[in-house]
Amino acid sequence: xxxxxxxxxxxxxxxxxxxxxxxxxxxxxxxxxxxxxxxxxxxxxxxxxxxxxxxxxxxxxxxxxxxxxxxxxxxxxxxxxxxxxxxxxxxxxxxxxxxxxxxxxxxxxxxxxxxxxxxxxxxxxxxxxxxxxxxxxxxxxxxxxxxxxxxxxxxxxxxxxxxxxxxxxxxxxxxxxxxxxxxxxxxxxxxxxxxxxxxxxxxxxxxxxxxxxxxxxxxxxxxxx
Length: 225
Ligand SMILES: N[C@@H](CCC(=O)N[C@@H](CS)C(=O)NCC(=O)O)C(=O)O
Known about the structure:
Largest sheet: 4 strands, mixed
Order of helices and strands: EHEHEEHHHHHHHHH
Shape: globular
CATH class of the largest domain: Mainly Alpha
CATH topology of the largest domain: Glutathione S-transferase Yfyf (Class Pi), Chain A, domain 2
Bound molecules: glutathione
Number of helices: 11
Number of domains: 2
Strand order of the largest sheet: 2-1-3-4
Structural class: alpha+beta
């Protein structure tokens, strides 16, 4: 575990709420976040939904600072540093923030519903987000990934003819988890067609939330026309 003094000084820094912030004992939560990274996007959404003090450290994915490898053995973003706690993996970071700052609660309070939500989060990773690296890196597998994502999202679309959000009527961590992909459909050149209209209506509902708007980086803002 890294001690406070071992935490590297960030090279790129964006102070979100507290311009007097210094990298010292009063450190608030710090998120190392890729400016175009869908996984970091998830964590930014949760931080803004909670409306507490935090700092986002913008990481240029094309010029990633060596510091990231010091705090995450997998050398990836997002990474959350909260005093002595260093966390990676967007869903783990988000559950920590949700438990630390319970309002508004984004995971269901009931253990059974919470377990189901975690199961669905896992399904999103396997069925959707595992295919994103091919698109982000422009790999040979990109066309297959596009096709797979399109098919899975079209299958999901009818759910939103009956309900407002992924878990019925309340915005939750599941909406947070999928939102960065929905925002990037044009950017990834995934065309869903008319059959996905209920899904796109659902997406617009998420995109119009103030926290979602505030969480977007300038590079993300231009991903959708
Ligand atoms: N499962 C991880 C995925 C994180 C991830 O893949 N991050 C990518 C950005 S898309 C990364 O930092 N890759 C290293 C690099 O591009 O150098 C999470 O949910 O946080």
